[in-house]
Amino acid sequence: MFEFYTLFLLGGLLVLAGMVILPVFFGAPWHPLLPGTIRRILRFADVQPGETFCDLGCGEGRVLVTAAKEFSARAIGVEIDPLKVMLARMFARMKGVDDRVQIVRGNMFDFDPSSADVLYLYLTHQAVDRLFPEILKKLKPSVKIVSYRFCLRGMTPEKVSADKTLFLYQLDKGNKINNYT
Ligand SMILES: C[S@@+](CC[C@H](N)C(=O)[O-])C[C@H]1O[C@@H](n2cnc3c(N)ncnc32)[C@H](O)[C@@H]1O
Questions:
Q1: 3.40.50.300, 3.30.1330.40, 3.90.180.10, 3.40.50.150: CATH of 2-173
Q2: How many helices (H) and strands (E) does the chain have?
Q3: What one-character DSSP code corresponds to residue 102?
Q4: Using one digit for the tens of pLDDT, what is the confidence trace for 52-103?
Q5: Quick one: CA torsion of 180, 130, 58, 12, rounded to 10 degrees?
């Protein structure tokens, strides 16, 4: 009995390490969103059918799946935690959109986001600061960048939600990020 509980505890700690500690160490913690918030984000981003919606640090993939299912987008996400990658792939299959949702297991800092029409970020200031400005060189000039909860430092948003939790940036509107061009 004691061994069972020890194994159970160790297993739990490993899962916790994978789902919480690892992401914190590499970029941003996990914080699942309510379905209403997911739809609000996608409507705010004005995702159009056929557009490629990209989520850096996609978690369990629910934003991607909703983008594909309800907004007819192609969706691609990268996630560092293998457990969440598995969940996201399962979820896409369950919802019948696995042909339009691609989940890449990996580090967002090594990920190529050049296919994105909409780049969605729900990260931390530290992670965003690590991504920018390098990521700008890899993005389409027409890309829309939507950040939830964290504004991009030094960059003027095109649009901000009334509750100031969503920020949309468009590079082809002449916006520059501080000295980043
Ligand atoms: C706040 S959650 C956002 C999840 C999802 N994008 C959403 O909006 O529901 C941040 C996610 O980023 C993942 N993450 C953290 N650092 C990462 C990295 N370096 N590469 C890929 N994913 C990372 C975490 O595992 C976590 O699932």
A1: 3.40.50.150
A2: 6, 7
A3: E
A4: 999 999 999 999 999 999 999 999 999 999 999 999 999 999 999 999 999 9
A5: -170
Closest C-alpha among 25, 72, 36 to residue 51? 72
Cβ < 6 A, ligand 1 pocket? 23, 26-31, 33, 55, 57-59, 63, 78-81, 84, 107-109, 122
Mutate to test the pocket of ligand 1, among 30, 44, 166 (most ligand atoms within 8 A of CB): 30
The mean pLDDT value of the chain amounts to 88
Q: Are 118 and 47 in contact (CB under 8 A)?
A: yes
The domains of the chain are located at 2-173
